[in-house]
Structures are given as C-alpha cells and as structure tokens.
Amino acid sequence: MSHKKSVCVVVGADGDLPIMQGAIDKLKYFGVPFSVRVVSAHRTPYQAEELAKTAREKGVGVIIAAAGKAAHLAGVLAAYTTLPVIAVPLKASTLDGLDALLSMVQMPTGVPVATVAIDGAANAGILAAQILSVEDPELTDKLAAFKDEMTAEYMRKDAEAVNRNW
Question: CA 133, CA 18: separation in Å to the nearest integer?
C-alpha cells in the first residue's frame, strides 16, 4: 500500500547524509515514501522557505530536518509550515552536537519542533512513521510488529545473559 503522505528528509549539508541514513533505512523498513533534500537555512534560505511552504501540497506529512552547529534548519522550516517537523541535531563541531541540540529544543512558543537525540536519525525515522500512522492502520501494524521484534530480541539477549556461565 502506498501511504497517503510522505516524509521529506532535509539536511543542511550533503556531508550530513551518511548520518541520516538511519532515518532513511527506517522509512524504507516501514515502507514510508520519502524524498531527500540538501537545503541550508543560511546558504539557501529562499529554497528552505519554498520547501516548507509547498511540502503539504506535494504530499509530505512530516519533515525531518538535520543540521549541526548553528542548527536553524528545523526551526526555519517549522516557521513556514504547519506540518510536524522533527529535528536531528548533528555532531558537527567541537561541542559534539550540544550546540545543535540546544538550538533545536529552545524554539520559541508557536514554532515547535520535535527533537531527537544527537545523531538520532533512526529515531527520527521511527517518529515520522508513528506520526503518519495516526491515519494509516497498515503502518500502525508495521510499527507494532517492529516493537514486538525489538522486545523479542531483548528477551533473547536477557535469556542469554541469565544462562551464560559467567
């Protein structure tokens, strides 16, 4: 089944793409259609504005925005859309991503962004799927199966630890 809405994964620089593979892999796993864009809040601000303003009409349901350092990308996109925006702070400076994290979580009232852990791309992909699952029962089932698989894996690891001859 093709989902009614897609996810737009936006990075502030092409060097951020390897980290965002975690989000892309999760979206593929759940069968969520997605697009990937390289748009900078600072170097291509007009393109960032246009992307955010036209995303809904292009079938996007969630935007994932990844940036490091002066990480304004998610906030800029959120300023121009009513779609949910998930921010992924990246380790791109001597501050190990703390600067990006604080830029993303300290958004002013009225312009929220959801923020995952530093370099937490996989969780961003899962969260995007969860948001889209509100209107997609098939996606809800895939997410439930994913959680069941995760639980089974950790129960197996627990059993191995309990039964190990330490």
Answer: 26
